[in-house]
């Protein structure tokens, strides 16, 4: 590496250091202000207390089983959106008239605040995991359908011609060429859907006070366990961020280099 | 014919300007000890092959590039950022697409806080000067490339700079439009007695418009020669056909050919080197 | 939307109505009919799927009483305040991050990864800090819409044609002039899109907060209808809410669209 290049790679970690440094300084300052009594510790618990309660929350509140409960809900919702979303996208691709009629509605569904209808879902499914899963499903379905449609419609002409040159039947053409070619785009749709699903699922768990991690926060809040509530929120945000990062990595791994 | 240069008449003085850059391949010197003067009211072109550092020079004089050695002085003041006496016209599309023609031209006048009525009056004058009267309320998106460059020119002229600094403003236009716009610029320059500094790679353009031409070498860019263009004024594009014109063009091409081929060679070696490593 | 070739269905009798419109009408009618059948069948618990008559009555009842508009005003006010605060701060942060590579590398990842997280879980904290009134709802709305606006603005800054910034510099525009006369107009499309997204999430955040803990607003009305099992009323409110939400989204999009004539 040249001297200039070496100099540049040293500077690469500086922004990250600034970011992390700012966070550390912020929490240290917060701790100081609270300990000094300038901020009411019964409204904002000191960060040291929050970190301290992590351990307690993790063991006493069965965080692990809650985590898997929420994950389970996401998994079911994920499977449902994949099956119905891809099927829906294929259907719209196959029947052009249907696509023309319905595509804008599907796009509108993506923008619609589905989660606001959670009381309705509660009436239909009760205060149960199914309410949570169904809201996750409805809120997350749209991107999968649209991306599947996009992936199939955008198949490169040359690949279709290759299929034709081998005299493939319509069905073979679809399953051996178009569908595999559309997989990366479909996965983008599933990724988007999973993110919507997780956000809605955790949100609804909190709102209806049932389920895994979302319910944990609600529970701790209702018990006025302040440090616990903050700790639980931090934990859920962490899970959410890791989930998002994982999906990004998975997508990059699935996408061929182009 | 213009009298030989006297320092009292110099409006811009560039002294030993050196511009160096750090690149992935190591440091390169874009401009190497360039010194020259620009006299009041003259039209000076800086011409050179690609890679001669003329864009760097443009940015230095315009005050957009302050990381350099040597100095550039305007009316005795050293340039340390965009100077109020210098107006720049860029090579790329630079009109604001969300403003009408007249609002574009009013822009510098807004910045200095001129009241609305005065702004409009002044803007109209310059719009007329570039030949776009009638188009005041159009948007740049509705105009051709040549017209948009005229808007940019009018906008810069509206700030009434002592020196007009242009970086290949007609590069993106076709030859005929370029010649006609060149006429327009000459007309304006004559009318306003505007000191103009034009950066270009087009020899015809340079000879057509300039009083003097500064020829630069290939990287590291130095001043190769300064040529006095002794063609009668007022000039129009008609002059392109004359014999004297042809001689000047040939003379400058001679100088440039050597530099341009050095540039080409350098590029080829570079590509070979890159693919080899 | 993909352009398709010929239609393979038989041509319609009336030339005015395209096959697409007919299909849409057919789907809607099928849905309405199916709904009504389900409602009268007695398969589901009463009123889970009320008849259209009942929903219609509830809708009329809703829209003809001032009470609804009062609550609508409360919610709309909260959303507007959230969008104003979150929007302006998001814009400011986005502009700063978009204009400075170093700061962007330091801080933007935080915005990017914290953005897609459920913000409603912060509601207990908002209540502690801002009380049980509109303050906590607005705060949640601000938290929700800050991220998409900031990220859109940062991205928008980076796609501004560099030459336009040079023009500003060459005329020695000061910071305020540069932001107001160059950055913001140049970014109008990304900003409008950011606001659309921000409006969507602010709406959700504010309304969900209202359903959780409030005594005013549309969210409160919805949860109230749920608690007394007044299903026709709940359906009516949800219908109006969805129409308004989609309408607001389209309106903001249209506002952004008007600007496209110029470029």
UniProtKB/TrEMBL annotation, chain A:
Keyword Transmembrane part of the UniProt annotation? yes
Recorded hits in PROSITE patterns, A to Z, give: ABC_TM1
Pfam families, per the entry: BPD_transp_1
Give membrane topology per the record: Multi-pass membrane protein
Any stretches that span the bilayer, and where are they? 12-30, 67-93, 105-124, 130-149, 181-208, 228-247
Q: Which CDD domains match?
A: TM_PBP2
Q: Where is the ABC transmembrane type-1 domain?
A: 67-248
GO CC terms for this protein? plasma membrane
Q: Which UniProt keywords apply?
A: Cell membrane, Membrane, Transmembrane, Transmembrane helix, Transport
* Source superkingdom: Bacteria
Q: Which family does it belong to?
A: Belongs to the binding-protein-dependent transport system permease family.
Q: What is this protein called in UniProt?
A: ABC transporter permease subunit
- From what organism does this protein derive? Pseudolabrys taiwanensis
TrEMBL record, chain B:
Q: Which GO terms describe its molecular function?
A: ATP binding; ATP hydrolysis activity
Enumerate the UniProt keywords alphabetically. Answer: ATP-binding, Nucleotide-binding, Transport
UniProt cross-references to InterPro entries, sorted A to Z: AAA+_ATPase (IPR003593), ABC_transporter-like_ATP-bd (IPR003439), ABC_transporter-like_CS (IPR017871), ABC_transporter_ATP-bind (IPR050166), P-loop_NTPase (IPR027417)
Asked if the Swiss-Prot or TrEMBL record annotates the protein with the keyword Oxidoreductase, the reply is no
The family database entries (CDD domains) matched by this protein are listed as:
ABC_NrtD_SsuB_transporters
Stretch forming the signal peptide: none
Question: What are the ABC transporter domain coordinates in residue numbering?
Answer: 12-243
Family stated for the protein in its record? Belongs to the ABC transporter superfamily.
Name this protein carries in UniProt: ABC transporter ATP-binding protein
Tell me the organism.
Pseudolabrys taiwanensis
Q: What is the lineage of its organism?
A: Bacteria, Pseudomonadati, Pseudomonadota, Alphaproteobacteria, Hyphomicrobiales
């Amino acid at each position: 590496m040249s001297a200039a290049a070496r100099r540049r790679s040293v500077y690469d970690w500086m922004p990250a250091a600034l970011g992390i440094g700012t966070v550390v300084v912020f929490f240290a300052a917060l701790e100081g202000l609270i300990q000094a009594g300038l901020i009411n510790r019964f409204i904002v618990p000191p960060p040291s207390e929050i970190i301290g309660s992590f351990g307690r929350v993790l063991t006493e509140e069965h965080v692990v089983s809650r985590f898997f409960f929420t994950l389970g809900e996401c998994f079911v919702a994920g499977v449902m959106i994949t099956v119905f979303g891809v099927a829906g996208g294929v259907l719209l691709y196959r029947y052009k008239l249907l696509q023309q009629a319905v595509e804008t509605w599907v796009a509108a569904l993506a923008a619609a605040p589905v989660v606001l209808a959670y009381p309705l879902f509660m009436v239909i499914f009760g205060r149960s995991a199914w309410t949570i899963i169904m809201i996750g499903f409805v809120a997350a379905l749209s991107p999968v359908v649209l991306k599947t449609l996009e992936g199939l419609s955008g198949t490169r002409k040359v690949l279709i011609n290759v299929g034709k040159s081998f005299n493939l039947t319509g069905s073979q053409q679809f399953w051996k060429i178009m569908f595999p070619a559309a997989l990366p785009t479909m996965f983008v749709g599933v990724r988007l859907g999973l993110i919507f699903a997780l956000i809605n699922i955790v949100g609804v768990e909190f709102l209806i006070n049932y389920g895994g991690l979302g319910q944990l926060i609600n529970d701790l809040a209702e018990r006025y366990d302040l440090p616990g509530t903050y700790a639980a929120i931090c934990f859920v945000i962490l899970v959410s961020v890791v989930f998002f990062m994982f999906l990004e990595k998975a997508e990059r791994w699935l996408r061929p280099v182009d | 014919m213009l009298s030989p240069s006297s320092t009292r008449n110099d409006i811009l003085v560039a002294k030993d300007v050196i511009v160096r850059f750090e690149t992935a391949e190591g440091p390169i010197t874009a401009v190497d000890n360039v010194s020259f003067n620009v006299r009041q009211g003259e039209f000076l072109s800086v011409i050179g092959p690609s890679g001669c550092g003329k864009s760097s020079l443009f940015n230095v004089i315009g005050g957009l590039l302050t990381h350099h050695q040597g100095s550039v002085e305007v009316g005795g003041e050293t340039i340390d950022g965009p100077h109020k006496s210098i107006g720049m016209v860029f090579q790329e599309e630079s009109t604001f697409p969300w403003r009408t023609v007249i609002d574009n031209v009013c822009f510098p006048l807004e910045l200095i806080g001129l009241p609305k009525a005065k702004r409009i009056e002044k803007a109209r004058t310059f719009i007329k000067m570039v030949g776009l009267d009638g188009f005041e309320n159009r948007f740049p998106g509705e105009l051709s490339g040549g017209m948009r460059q005229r808007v940019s020119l009018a906008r810069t002229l509206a700030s009434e700079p002592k020196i007009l600094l242009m970086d290949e403003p007609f590069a993106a236009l076709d030859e005929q439009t370029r010649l006609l716009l060149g006429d327009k610029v000459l007309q304006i320059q004559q009318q306003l007695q505007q000191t103009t500094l034009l950066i270009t790679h087009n020899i015809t353009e340079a000879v057509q418009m300039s009083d003097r031409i500064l020829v630069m070498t290939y990287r590291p860019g130095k001043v190769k020669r300064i040529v006095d263009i002794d063609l009668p004024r007022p000039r129009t594009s008609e002059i392109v056909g004359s014999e004297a014109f042809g001689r000047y063009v040939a003379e400058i091409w001679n100088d440039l050919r050597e530099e341009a081929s050095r540039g080409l060679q350098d590029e080829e070696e570079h590509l070979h080197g890159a693919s080899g490593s | 939307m993909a352009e398709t070739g010929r239609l393979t269905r038989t041509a319609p009798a009336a030339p005015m109505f395209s096959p697409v419109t007919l299909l849409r009408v057919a789907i809607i009618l099928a849905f309405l009919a199916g709904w009504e059948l389900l409602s009268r069948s007695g398969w589901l618990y009463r009123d889970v799927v009320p008849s259209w008559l009942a929903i219609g009555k509830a809708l009329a009842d809703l829209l003809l009483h001032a009470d609804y508009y009062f609550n609508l005003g409360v919610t709309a006010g909260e959303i507007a305040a959230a969008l104003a605060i979150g929007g302006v701060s998001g814009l400011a942060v986005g502009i700063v991050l978009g204009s400075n590579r170093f700061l962007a590398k330091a801080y933007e990842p935080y915005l990017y990864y914290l953005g897609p997280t459920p913000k409603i879980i912060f509601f207990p904290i908002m209540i502690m800090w801002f009380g049980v009134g509109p303050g906590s709802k607005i705060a949640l709305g601000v938290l929700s819409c800050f991220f998409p606006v900031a990220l859109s603005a940062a991205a928008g800054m980076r796609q501004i044609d560099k030459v336009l910034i040079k023009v500003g510099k060459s005329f020695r525009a000061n910071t305020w002039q540069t932001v107001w006369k160059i950055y913001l107009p140049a970014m109008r499309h990304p900003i409008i899109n950011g606001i659309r997204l921000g409006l969507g999430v602010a709406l959700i955040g504010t309304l969900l907060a209202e359903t959780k803990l409030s005594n005013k607003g549309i969210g409160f009305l919805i949860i109230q209808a749920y608690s007394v099992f007044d299903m026709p009323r709940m359906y009516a409110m949800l219908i109006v809410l969805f129409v308004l939400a989609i309408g607001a989204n389209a309106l903001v999009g249209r506002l952004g669209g008007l600007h496209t004539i110029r470029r």
